[in-house]
Amino acid sequence: xxxxxxxxxxxxxxxxxxxxxxxxxxxxxxxxxxxxxxxxxxxxxxxxxxxxxxxxxxxxxxxxxxxxxxxxxxxxxxxxxxxxxxxxxxxxxxxxxxxxxxxxxxxxxxxxxxxxxxxxxxxxxxxxxxxxxxxxxxxxxxxxxxxxxxxxxxxxxxxxxxxxxxxxxxxxxxxxxxxxxxxxxxxxxxxxxxxxxxxxxxxxxxxxxxxxxxxxxxxxxxxxxxxxxxxxxxxxxxxxxxxxxxxxxxxxxxxxxxxxxxxxxxxxxxxxxxxxxxxxxxxxxxxxxxxxxxxxxxxxxxxxxxxxxxxxxxxxxxxxxxxxxxxxxxxxxxxxxxxxxxxxxxxxxxxxxxxxxxxxxxxxxxxxxxxxxxxxxxxxxxxxxxxxxxxxxxxxxxxxxxxxxxxxxxxxxxxxxxxxxxxxxxxxxxxxxxxxxxxxxxxxxxxxxxx
Amino acid sequence: xxxxxxxxxxxxxxxxxxxxxxxxxxxxxxxxxxxxxxxxxxxxxxxxxxxxxxxxxxxxxxxxxxxxxxxxxxxxxxxxxxxxxxxxxxxxxxxxxxxxxxxxxxxxxxxxxxxxxxxxxxxxxxxxxxxxxxxxxxxxxxxxxxxxxxxxxxxxxxxxxxxxxxxxxxxxxxxxxxxxxxxxxxxxxxxxxxxxxxxxxxxxxxxxxxxxxxxxxxxxxxxxxxxxxxxxxxxxxxxxxxxxxxxxxxxxxxxxxxxxxxxxxxxxxxxxxxxxxxxxxxxxxxxxxxxxxxxxxxxxxxxxxxxxxxxxxxxxxxxxxxxxxxxxxxxxxxxxxxxxxxxxxxxxxxxxxxxxxxxxxxxxxxxxxxxxxxxxxxxxxxxxxxxxxxxxxxxxxxxxxxxxxxxxxxxxxxxxxxxxxxxxxxx
Lengths: 451, 427
Hints:
The complex is a heterodimer.
Chain A: H1 5-8, E1 32-36, E2 42-47, E3 53-61, H2 69-79, H3 89-98, E4 102-107, E5 111-119, H4 123-136, H5 141-158, H6 162-175, H7 187-191, H8 195-205, E6 212-217, H9 221-231, E7 255-259, E8 265-273, H10 282-294, H11 299-307, E9 311-321, E10 324-334, H12 338-354, H13 359-376, H14 380-392, H15 397-408, H16 412-422, E11 429-434, E12 448-449
Parallel strand pairs in A: 2-6, 7-11, 7-12
Antiparallel strand pairs in A: 1-2, 3-5, 3-6, 4-5, 8-10, 8-11, 9-10
Chain B: E1 7-10, E2 16-21, E3 27-34, H1 48-55, H2 67-74, E4 78-83, E5 88-95, H3 99-111, H4 117-136, H5 149-152, H6 156-159, H7 166-171, H8 174-184, E6 190-196, H9 200-211, E7 234-240, E8 247-253, H10 261-275, H11 281-289, E9 293-300, E10 313-320, H12 326-342, H13 347-366, H14 368-382, H15 387-396, H16 400-409, E11 416-422
Parallel strand pairs in B: 2-6, 7-11
Antiparallel strand pairs in B: 1-2, 3-5, 3-6, 4-5, 8-10, 8-11, 9-10
Helix pairs in contact in B: 1-4, 3-9, 10-16, 11-12, 12-16, 13-15
């Protein structure tokens, strides 16, 4: 049997109508506690018993203005879980593993994070190990030495990634040398970090006051808060870490081309100012961003991927910081279509303000925003991460519960107003990483600085 | 282990169905697995199975181009698809109200996809961009999933690049697409899985309504991809224009999970004892004691365990500094594997790995996407979706002697060694 493509695409009955949506099951109401311990640590515990696990997220404010802060902070985060006065690295891993547990530390310019999970029955062990590291991490000389060397190598690998090259260039382009831009230290700074400097940073900055701990899982919230208060009883501080100075607002300007010889693809990264989640126009901004490039059915993806085939990966998103938010538009395109892709990106930015979403598009945007939030928070890990991100900006679980109603209330006019102001092509600055020798056609578009 | 009550049945047209209802969840996951992956694509058409996966999103009799994405997202859902060695999956997760819609969308493209020249050309461009992004323009692109198979395997099916050569991709025609669809995308060659917010009786009615009249076509014969293990150590090297540091991948053959599951799981346990967690053998030795590598990992399968049929691969990969030779890393790995082959690991080492596996299987079950895909893949590969819920017990039952035996089977004279030579920054 061999049919042609044409024959395959037709049936005797012909096209069929799309079924209507069915009834929606209600979202289960979850029991939770949101409280601040005597140590100043804010604790959010949610009972979500879908599987016998518990997810843990801890965020500690960790900004620093010392030029060597980011190198010390990276070494600290790599060795926080490498041994304490009670457990060496192997014992720590063994205790966690036996309860199906894991803990990882990571650091960015604003915060130190410890994330992990364990079988719910192993919660006491998980908390004991966490408390042990927070109060008794030793930063042994040999452990610091090993992690320093690894870090230098891993930084070299990371900096060979075009996405990382583009990220660092974009941070400099839009924020200058603000401490917030130091997402990854340079290898030379890491190589000279001493164990004593790391211990000193821990004493000064791994502080309970101002930190947030979120636990989501098959646990009883009140009982868990009591367990936590005991396990972390020795983690106390009167001081808290000062927040970084607010970031400067992103202002429009030329896109800077960063030369990467021989690159077969270019990274386009554009950015403009946005607004914090607490801003009254935030829900409208969220929908405007979806319409532009925030989901697959967005104008940007339908244009430069599904119509033109310029890219596999194109998207836009809001990035939040302690002082506000920025819009990020990104696409990776073959060298020979880079200029054409930029032209289309600018066209879609302009069109969003001039031809904003109509009621039919609005309906899709609202449903997607509400539905994807439901999906993202349906698992323990997803809910824990969402709550932690919000708590980091001072928002409580109720904000999440109320958000669908906020999205449902956004009007066409709200989105049109936000689109015209925030998505104007002239509001954007950015970078293009690629083979500058083959990107001369960008010159004709204007608003691009080539080396 | 948390498990769903499973319902399985087969429609008259041969479509196999797995339902995993959850009485509370407000979201539903739906997947369709087709029993064809990149091992089945013909010579001269490398990358075709993946390209065809892209085309299946480009419209069908009742749905214009872009409509599939729009209808899922306008129902509040998310979607994707992926191509594996032995199967291709399509999946979506939606708020429960979208169940009938996604069944309609999947049935429409199983019945009558629109395969057009224009969409084919467009998606060839998109796939080439995907390959530039994930392979050609980055360090360690395709390491080890594209680079290791041609060293370990001989046959085209097992050895070739599943992403495809640009030359082959550009030669793909609409006639190829029609033939591929008619051969492999028969309902009898597919598994439909629904997990989460689904009522079995209602679902059965909806499935009959939408998939019941997809015309039956014969299920294609599935060829054996078996080939003998290497008769000697095979080495190759790959120069990576972007990589700053050398890397190494070792590939060994593993037992067939369909016929020797316990032996396969002993290899899975071995991979955990070797490289899972700070306390594992290779992390301790290569990273912390000798400082030879900046990272090391070990595992079954090039994309994860139990996601391909025989023949499959046990891998050890490491990234190391330029001052350390590949042979030094290899020597240290061999010593650690020999030590396990000669002396059984203690019970605690095994309990660490099995507890972490139990936890990670719970976490996969909790994410409706991975739950749906896991059940569907196990139905397709092993004819037993419930096996997924037996895994924690089966893994916990692996004995120290079985792990030693697995270590013994990793023979240097029957393996592939791929070294990556860094040429980053030299262009």
